Amino acid sequence: MIVPFPGGVTSLEAAAEGTLSQYRRLARVLTVTREMVALAEVGDWDAVAAREQDRRDDLARCFKEAVSTEHAELVAEALAAILHLNEEMMAHLSKARDAVLQQGVAQVRTRSAIGHYEQVKSQP
């Protein structure tokens, strides 16, 4: 879902060149962030990371110019939604990090057990 921000691409040439209005760019950031959360849910962290750079670039371009006071509330709502989605993504990241840590601990235990077994096996 794209937030219906006012403005937009003013001509077909601008659309072809990839020039987006501030509001469309922010709507795209929101859409990409939602995609990133969905990818994080399934553990596709490479895809999340690939989209993150594009998202950062869009955010930087979006706020190169001031937000009009007329649309400040809409922009604030979009930013609040992005922050909420970031929190969801961070929760998924925390779970994935914990799972990786647990796998590491299990591997250390397995290596230790193998080492002990090798010691017992090599004793006469």
What does this structure look like?
There is one protein chain. This protein is an all-alpha fold. The protein has one domain (12-122): Flagellar protein flit (Methane Monooxygenase Hydroxylase, Chain G, domain 1, Up-down Bundle). The chain contains 4 helices and no strands. It has helices at residues 12-17, 22-41, 45-62, 72-122. Helix 2 (22-41) packs antiparallel against helix 3 and helix 2 (22-41) runs parallel beside helix 4 (72-122). It is rod-shaped, with a radius of gyration of 23 Å.
CATH architecture: Up-down Bundle
How would you characterize the largest beta sheet? none
Q: Low-confidence spans: pLDDT under 50, at least 5 residues?
A: 1-19
Average predicted confidence as pLDDT: 83
Shape: rod-shaped
Helix content: over 70%
- The helix-strand sequence is HHHH
CATH superfamily: Flagellar protein flit
**Radius of gyration, CA atoms, in whole angstroms:** 23 Å
Question: What's the number of structural domains?
Answer: 1
Short description:
With 124 residues, the chain is mainly α. The protein has helices at 12-17, 22-41, 45-62, 72-122.
Using brief descriptors, characterize the structure shown.
single chain; 124 residues; Methane Monooxygenase Hydroxylase, Chain G, domain 1; 4 helices; disordered N terminus; mainly alpha
Layout: helices, strands, pairs:
Blueprint: H1 12-17, H2 22-41, H3 45-62, H4 72-122
Helix pairs in contact: 2-3, 2-4
